[in-house]
Amino acid sequence: MRLKTVNEQQQTILIVNSRDQDRIAISDSLNEAGFGTVEAKNPKLALIYFKQVQPDLVLMDLDMPDVTSGLALCGHLAAAANYANTPILVLSGHNDMDLAATAFDAGASDFIIQPINNLILIQRCRYQIRSSQNLVSLKRRERILEHAERMAQMGSWEWESKSQRLYVSKEFNRILGFEENRPTSVRDVLNRLDEQERTKIIRHFQQANSRHQGKITLHHRLKSDAGIGRTLRHEARFILHSSNNYSVYGTIHDITEEVAHKDQVLQLAYYDALTQLPNRTFFKTHLDHAIKLARQNGHLLAVILLDLDLFTRINNSLGHEAGDELLKKVSNRLLRSFEDTNCTALNMRAIDPQAPDEMMSNKLARLEGDQFAVLINKFTKLDEVILFVQRLLKQLVTPFTLQGNNIVLTASAGIALYPVNGLGTEMILRNADAAMHFAKSQGRNNFHFYSSDIDFKSKERLSVENDLRHAIRHNELELHYQPKLHLKSASVHSVEALVRWNHPVRGLVSPSQFVPMAEEIGLINELGEWLINKACLQAKRWNESGLSPIRIAINLSPVQIRGSSLVQMIRNALLTYRLAPSQLEVEITETVLLEDTNRVLRTLEGIRNLGVKVALDDFGTGYSSLSYLTRFPFSTLKIDRSFVSQCNQQGHAAAIIHTIIQLCKNLNLEVVAEGVERYEELKFLLDHRCDVVQGHYFSPALSASELTDYIEKQSWVPLLPIPSTPTVHEH
Fold first, then answer.
1. Residue 728 pLDDT > 50, yes or no?
2. Hey, is 227 helix, strand or coil?
3. 3-class SS at 471?
4. How crowded is residue 401: how many other Cβ atoms within 10 Å of its Cβ?
5. Chain centre to alpha carbon of residue 625
6. Quick one: which of 84, 234, 430, 599 is 20 to 30 A from 573 by CA?
7. Using CA atoms, how far apart are residues 674 and 641, in angstroms rounded to an integer?
8. Which of 616, 589, 479 is nearest to 539 (CA)?
9. CA diameter of the chain
């Protein structure tokens, strides 16, 4: 037994032979050939040396004292050798094929009959070692390829036309949901696809097959039973060997994550993050495409731009988070309008042909802020567009619930037609936007088609806006005052201040035009401050003229109520003009109560704490709850003129007025009926014990001097149905 020092650079052979003379001779011969050797004379030492040295080859003599022990050792070494891929060359003096077969079954790599030819033995050793190394290298490359395929989620395959056999990698089977080591047929692969995908792949391969050349690339989705939502890319190349013999080599790549990442990029680029609707870029891309098709086919297009009215007040009063939440609610509400319409679906496939069918599509786009867009394709009558826009606007009628508040929204829409209003995307969008702003200028909550005179009107509107800024800052506005009469005392109870703008060029401009304009362009607080100071100044002048103190009611915009400076603004005006708070009253509409009620409540309580009365105007026309009458600090409730005008007709108006008056009596609120224009209306209100009335039956809004004469002359007395001489009382 010899254990020699082995050179790490040498190929090492473990010699297992119980005969010392034979073992030493073989060792010497192998050493002369350049091999390193380790000798073991029994199975026990062989196993020990094998584990220590890890030889490149085991040369083992089966003709030990016990042949079965030699075969057992062969099995043990083979089991250990499989891990290291070490070949086992066995020697035997018996020319026994059964023994050779048994040795091979035990794990031997080769079999040599003794006596040994040293030259043959050396060559056989070199061959076995080289074959083992090649096998190790091949297996290593296979492992590398398997790991690479697994990491890349890519499988490989080969198909031979001659044998009609398909050879696939483990990863190929794994991707398609097969067992990794199972034989896979072309039919197996095709059965994993749905009918449409199967037909597409077969067609592509047939086209390439007819030429026996070329490369094809295609994408498809796996059937649901093999993995829902997985996307695969197939690439194949045809290699022609002879006229009737060719092979196809290909790869299959699971690109699900790649597609998902791409979809995410597309989502960020082309979809609005807040509402998940297509964005401006997406909409313009589709509009470009739609215009090209319309130009080719000669059909019409309609672009609708819809903008929420006075949406900035939501952000200003409730905060931007609440505004964002409301925009999501609005988007979902608007989407209900798209049933049975010709609105073009905005699908990602138009931008990326390889995008899956499941990629988000929609018919509504959010361009920016509170502005939305719709594209209607191939309509035949404008009535179709009109009906749709009306349906779109109607979706906003019902109040939205937000942070415990009921939010009333309206929208204005502008419509531009291709090719009537423009031949390109930018012009169509610009004209639709102009039509939308024109709709806003006409009172909001409506729509307008673009026309050539809108540009002129838009310029006119800009000019009016500039004039309004100048009028407010240079005191060019006026206040007129409509008297309110107390029916029980037949006296002037108070007056309502109404702002007037007599433009030097345009003449009298209605408040319904310039007040919303002031709200929209951010002038309403400036206008409100002017109104409050002007009213207080006039009340002071009436006091100084000897008239009994007159209470002046001023109308406040919802924007002013939601502002933070209103209470301080009123306090400063009262101090500046040394006016008693009881001579000032503010009127608000029901819509104010539907948004950020906590802030509104704080503002109204602040006004009441100053000693200023608060009136609820246009009662019964909105969506407010009766509970607001007890929650908010109202002193007065005004019945809307729409009920007053119908009080003597068949219907519910009379019952409503009666109920409101009784409700006010029970809540100790003063009740005012506005819009009284006929004697019959006055008589009805008097019979139902209404406290105060106002309307053109008694007087329109008057200038300050006209109102002074009206009070001094008691001009209303002949209009009253009571034979009494009224006296003016202080209120």
1. no
2. coil
3. helix
4. 12
5. 34
6. 599
7. 5
8. 479
9. 155
What one-character DSSP code corresponds to residue 610? T
State pLDDT tens for residues 419-466. Answer: 888 888 899 998 898 888 888 877 788 888 888 777 666 666 667 778
Predicted model pTM: 0.48
Query: Helix-strand-coil percent breakdown of the chain, rounded to 5?
Result: 45, 20, 30
State the fold for domain 12-147.
Answer: Rossmann fold (3.40.50)
Q: Are 647 and 681 in contact (CB under 8 A)?
A: yes
Which residues make Cβ contacts (< 8 Å) with residue 598, sequence separation at least 6?
none
CB within 8 Å of 29: residues ≥ 6 apart: 118, 121, 122
**What residue has token string 């053109």?**
696
Q: Which two tokens stand for residue 628?
A: 């607001």
Rounded distance between C-alpha atoms, residue 308 and residue 450, angstroms: 18
Distance between CA 255 and CA 362 in Å, rounded?
Answer: 25
Q: 418-440: b or e for each residue (b if 16 or more CB lie within 10 Å)?
A: beebbeebeebbbbbbbbbbbbb
CB atoms within 10 A of CB 63: 16
Token pair of 568 as six digits: 């301080």
Which long-range contacts link 677-683 to residues 24+ away (Cβ below 8 Å)?
677/645, 679/719, 679/721, 680/648, 681/644, 681/645, 681/647, 681/648, 682/719, 682/720, 682/721, 683/721
Q: How long, in residues, is the chain?
A: 731
**Cβ atoms of residues 40 and 1 within 8 Å:** yes
pLDDT of residue 224: 52
Question: How open is the CA angle 356-362-367, to the nearest 5 degrees?
Answer: 120
Task: Provide CB contacts within 8 A for 204, sequence distance 6+.
Answer: 216, 218
Integer Cα distance of 316 and 322 in angstroms: 10
**CB contact set of 477 (below 8 Å; sequence gap of 6+):** 471, 499, 500, 501, 527, 530, 534
Tens digit of each residue's pLDDT (9 = 90 or more) over 186-209: 788 777 777 777 777 777 777 666
Report the distance separating Cα 60 and Cα 92, nearest Å: 9
Phi, psi angles (nearest 5°) of residue 525: -65, -40
Listed by start position, the domains of the chain span: 12-147, 153-254, 271-452, 466-714
Paired with 497 in beta bridges are 481, 554
What one-character-per-residue DSSP string does 350-399 give?
GT-TTS-TTS-EES-EEEETTEEEEEEES-S-HHHHHHHHHHHHHTTSSP
Measured between alpha carbons, how far is 202 from 205 in angstroms, rounded to an integer?
Answer: 5
Identify the CA nearest to 257 among candidates 233, 278, 223, 225. Answer: 233
Residue 65: exposed, middle, or buried by beta-carbon count in 10 A (0-12, 13-18, 19+)? exposed
Strand order in the sheet with 411-418: 365-368, 371-377, 301-308, 411-418, 447-449
Return the pLDDT at 261.
Answer: 64
User: For 466-714, which CATH class?
Assistant: alpha beta
Radius of gyration (Cα) for the chain, nearest Å? 47
Residue environment code for 234-251, b if the CB has 16+ CB neighbours within 10 A, otherwise e? bebebeeeeeeebbbebb
Which listed CATH number (1.10.3720.10, 1.10.8.60, 3.40.50.300, 3.30.70.270) goes with 271-452?
A: 3.30.70.270
Instruction: Look up residue 640 and give its two tokens.
Output: 């809307």
Q: How would residue 724 be classed by pLDDT, with cut points 50, 70 and 90? A: very low
